[in-house]
Design a protein that fits this description.
With 144 residues, this protein is mainly α. The chain has helices spanning 3-8, 10-20, 34-43, 45-59, 70-83, 85-100, 103-108, 132-137.
Length: 144
């Protein structure tokens, strides 16, 4: 399968992501990570394959995922997790990566969206050490 087939199943994937990370307390649901997850799948055939197999496992649960209520969706994903642990782990990891890097979530956490450096860490200026003695000493190892 390909990233294109994942994009075609966008609605199902959005429901899965919202089930993994439900909206609440002013935080958006997991579907905000949808574009991130699809971009990963477009960039990596391995990721696309893992996600497609995960969606197939959800489809195999029967009765369809979309018509289920939130509790039944959670139980369905629990069954998928038990039977396809590696697939489920990858799905959760990519969902969390996209979710916690989304500007809406970062802002809701009280952080400023953007790169960690240079705003996050201050590097004090310092004078570089004098390496003259080391250079003058020359190599101290045996040539091979």
């Amino acid at each position: 399968m390909s990233a294109g087939s994942l994009a075609a199943r966008r609605d199902l994937l959005a429901l899965v992501l919202d089930t993994l990370v439900p909206a609440g307390d002013g935080f958006p649901g997991g579907a905000v990570a949808l574009d991130h997850v699809l971009a990963l799948a477009a960039a990596s055939a391995d990721v696309a394959s893992i996600l497609e197999r995960g969606l197939q496992a959800i489809d195999e649960m029967g009765a369809g995922f979309a018509p289920l209520d939130a509790g039944d969706r959670e139980r369905a994903l629990t069954r998928v997790e038990e039977s396809h642990a590696a697939l489920f782990d990858a799905l959760v990891r990519h969902t969390y990566d996209g979710y916690y890097s989304h500007p809406a979530v970062i802002g809701r956490l009280g952080l400023e969206p953007g790169p960690v450096q240079p705003r996050g860490h201050r590097i004090e200026t310092a004078e570089l050490p004098d390496l003259g003695r080391v250079i003058a000493r020359g190599p101290i190892y045996r040539p091979t």
